[in-house]
Amino acid sequence: MKKVMMLLPFILLGCKPNASVVSSPVAESVNKPTEILYQVKESEVAATLKYLSSDELEGRDTGTKGMEKAAAYLEQFFKTNNVKPYFSSYRDTISNFKGTAYNIVGFLEGNDPVLKKEFLLISAHYDHIGLAREGVNGDFINNGANDDASGTTAVAEMAKYFSGSKLNKRSILFVFFVGEEKGLLGSKHLAKKLKQQGFNLYSQFNIEMIGVPMKRDYLAYLTGFEKSNMGAKINEYTGKNSVGFLPKAAEYKLFYRSDNYSFYDVFKVPCQSVSTFDFENFEYYHHVSDEFKVMDIRHMTHFIQEMLPAVTQMASSPSQEIHMN
C-alpha cells in the first residue's frame, strides 16, 4: 500500500482498541445470494503466497530481478489456468518508470454476446519495496507477504475460479500492477492506455493487504465506501455483512493510496479497494517481518471464498447494478 508508511507511527499512536467503527448492514436482497460450489484450497493459497513472499524474490522492488521472477511466475499461473493475455503478451511495459517494469495482464472474455463488451477489472499490485538499508537481526528483505502478495494471491485464485467456471457474462481483466509503491505508476500507465483504446470499464475490484483478519463485525472494509453502492451490493451478493466502512480508511484517504484511484481518476466509475489491514491488526507494515510465516492462510482462504459470490455477480448481473452515489 502506497504512502502510508510515513503516517503509520502517528496512526498507530492514535488508534484505540475500541475505536468507533460503522459497518454496512446487509442490503435487502431482491435476489437470493449467489451460491458458489467451488472451494478455494488452503494449500494452493499458501503455495502462491509462499513463493511471492520468498527471500528468492528479494522484496519484488519495481525494476529488479526479484520483480522479474514474480512476473514470470504470474505469467505461468495465467498460462496454466487458461487465462489469455489481453495484449500481444501478458507483459504491459509501463511508460512512466526509468527502468524496465511491467504490469501482468490477463483476460477472460465474457460469455454473453452483449455484456462481454463491458469489463470488470480485478486487480492487486505484485511489487513491494525490496531491500532495506538497515536490517533487523540480519534480515534486509522486505518480503511484502501482506503488502501485497496477499492481494495478488487472491486475484490469482479468482482468475483460476473464473477460468474453470466460465460464469462471467462480462469480460474480466485480471491485472497484477507494478510500481504501486513508486506512486501508482503501473495503474496510472494502464488506465491512461486503456482509456485511449476506448476500454469499456464497468467497475474495478482491487485487493490490498488481506493477509490477517480484523476483529470487527464484518470481514473487510472498502475504501471510498460512500462514493458508490459497491459495498451494499457486495453484501447483497454474499448475503453476509462482508464489507463495511472503516473510519481510519476515510481519515487517511486510503481510497487515493492504491491502484483503484488511478482508474477512478480516468474512468469515473466505481473503482475501489478491499482490505483487512485496519491499523490495529498488523505491526509489520513496510517491515522486514512482513513474511509468509505471519500470514493467516485460513483467513485468506475464507476471504477469497466469501468474495466469490460478489465478483461472480459483478461479472454477470444483467444490468450495471453498481454505480456512483
Describe this protein's structure.
Helix content is 33%, strand content 16%. With 325 residues, it is α/β, with parallel strands linked by helices. The chain has one domain (35-213, 252-314): Zn peptidases (Aminopeptidase, 3-Layer(aba) Sandwich). Strands 1, 2, 3, 4, 7, 8, 9, 10 and 11 form a 9-stranded mixed beta sheet that branches. The longest helix has 21 residues, at 145-165.
Roughly what percent helix?
Answer: 25-40%
In CATH, the architecture is 3-Layer(aba) Sandwich
CATH class: Alpha Beta
How many structural domains? 1
**The CATH topology, please?**
Aminopeptidase
| Mean pLDDT across residues | 92
Per DSSP E runs of 2 or more residues, the count of β-strands stands at 11
The radius of gyration is 18 Å
Structural class by sheet pairing and helices: alpha/beta
End-to-end separation in angstroms reads 25 Å
**Per the principal axes of the C-alpha atoms, what is the gross shape?**
globular
Number of helices: 9
Report the major sheet.
9 strands, mixed
**Weakly predicted, low-confidence segments:** 5-30
Q: For the record, what is the CATH homologous superfamily label?
A: Zn peptidases
Along the chain, the helix and strand elements come as HHHEEEEEEHEHEEHEHHEH
- How much beta, percentage-wise? 15-25%
